[in-house]
Amino acid sequence: MFKKIAVLGCTLLLLAACNSNQEGIGNGANNTNIPNNNYQTNPIQNPTQGSISVDFDVVNPKVTFSEALKIFNDIYPNANIESVDLETGYGRLYYDIEGFDQSKEYELKIDPMTKEIDKKEFERTKGTDEILDLSNVMDPSEAIAIASQVRDVQGLSPIGWSLDAEYGMQIYKVEFRTKAAEIDVKIDAKTGEILKVDVDD
């Protein structure tokens, strides 16, 4: 009788031990072969493909146009700004600012919600560049308001904008999208004149 009780006790202990090990594997505890995915990545440097589509506030982002320019100027105080974009991609909204000095080119991406940044520097390879003249340019929200009056985009929300120097002019390009086409409205950034409407079917 004592032997039977001893054997039964050992069996119960073995079953308990096995059950404990299985729970550890299921929870990832004390198991070095199971990767730990609880890490944080830079959403700009490592965007995830196939992210759920989200509606972004392109008109009034948390980080304003002037704040984004200040961030760039604080990091690269001697650089000339060549272009500024606020665009969506990989399920995120971000500023993309490009500039250059005598020896290098710079690209700075800024998350307009968190101010998280991604910096890239390159050896300068361009021959001539047009520098953005930011004096007296209108705010992006004003450019969006003007672009939204175009008949082809009535009722649509902008998905992004860019500000570039072209042929001595400072030009906003406000982007819209329908199910069938992408529509770009180009505006003189100083006068507000609508220069061109491109419809890409």
Number of H/I helices:
3
Low-confidence stretches: 1-54
By DSSP, the count of extended strands is 8
As a percent range, the share of helical residues equals 10-25%
Separation, N- and C-terminal Cα atoms? 87 Å
Topology readout:
Blueprint: H1 2-27, H2 65-75, E1 80-89, E2 92-100, E3 104-110, E4 117-123, H3 140-147, E5 160-166, E6 169-177, E7 182-188, E8 194-200
Antiparallel strand pairs: 1-2, 1-5, 2-3, 3-4, 5-6, 6-7, 7-8
Summarize this entry quickly.
The chain has 201 residues and is an alpha+beta fold. Helix content is 22%, strand content 31%. Strand 6 (169-177) and strand 7 (182-188) form a beta hairpin.
Walk me through this protein's architecture:
22% of the residues lie in helices and 31% in strands. The chain is built from three helices and eight strands; from the N terminus they run H-H-E-E-E-E-H-E-E-E-E. The protein has helices spanning 2-27, 65-75, 140-147; strands at 80-89, 92-100, 104-110, 117-123, 160-166, 169-177, 182-188, 194-200. The protein has an eight-stranded antiparallel sheet, covered by helices on one side. The longest helix has 26 residues, at 2-27. The termini are far apart.
